[in-house]
Amino acid sequence: MQTPKILIVDTEAAFYAASLREQAPGAEYLTAASPEAALPLAADAQVILGLAPRLSGELLRAAPRLEWVQALTTGVDNLLAEPALKGIALTNAGGFHGPQMSELAILLMLSCARDFPQVLENQRAAKWERWKQPLLRGKTVCIVGIGAISETLAGMCNAFGMRVTGVSDGRSEVPGFAAIYTRATLSQAAAEADFLVVLTPYSEKTHHIINAETLNALPPHAYLINLSRGGCVDEAALLAALQDNRIAGAGLDVFATEPLPESSPFWSLPNVIVTPHIGGFSDVYAQQALPIVVARMQEYLRGGVAALSHRLDRS
């Protein structure tokens, strides 16, 4: 059997390759730090590994022998819609994003509530100004979508002394959650929330799950934190709620159009904190993803594409 060639496209490609050579021998591991550097190497690759947003149609079309794509991200929206992947096995990587996503949620809740952007602005202006600093303790955080990330966040919020509620149609009782609401009663859950954190996967069912009705149900002092996908929030309704001060503010890591256009009013709203879709990032991301990559590669080397577990259904 010909030795399969595995193309790893990532700034940490050398790390993945060294680890795979040791833990999943029997393949030739090619490395490229960027999609541009990967193009000349793609022709002979049976497998491509990389962050989904960086795996372009151009790169995939340059790999006529391609059998399998292993995304190093959970979200693979662009790959699911990529015609060049028709008939190609696709797997993703998840289950390890809880710490970084949860820490960003906590950071945004604290920063919004304490108006930390103004603190930094005052520092730049050498302005000594003090105001009452709201506590997370005693506040209610409602998490829309209950999975592994939400469970990690719930634990952190409980440690801050917060009351945690959730919204899910699939789970009615979860450790760490004081109450679980259905999607049909989302507005009721929102009405009790000081912070509404969106962590539900994006789908047709969750498109604009946070809409004008939900936003109007939030108390005027509440904040929206979106770490899921931009399509989960009706951005026009959110913009109106923020401009009219019907809610206190928002921390937004994801948007319907990314990168967020320079012309977007979200950049300049004083009650909004924008982060550039960094929720899933960490300084140890490669180490977090490696066990999944190794396990899948061992499956592939034992039995080919047919042996891969957790293949994504694109039917």
Could you explain the architecture of this structure?
This protein is 32% helix and 16% strand. It has helices at 13-23, 35-38, 57-61, 77-80, 98-113, 116-124, 148-159, 186-191, 212-217, 235-243, 285-303, and strands at 5-9, 28-32, 47-50, 68-71, 89-91, 140-144, 163-167, 179-181, 195-198, 223-226, 249-252, 272-274. Helix 1 (13-23) packs across helix 11 and helix 5 (98-113) crosses helix 7. 39% of the residues are buried. The model has no long low-confidence stretch (mean pLDDT 97). The longest helix has 19 residues, at 285-303. It contains eleven helices and twelve strands. The protein has a seven-stranded parallel β-sheet with strand order 8-7-6-9-10-11-12. A five-stranded parallel β-sheet has the order 2-1-3-4-5. By secondary structure, the protein is of the alpha/beta class.
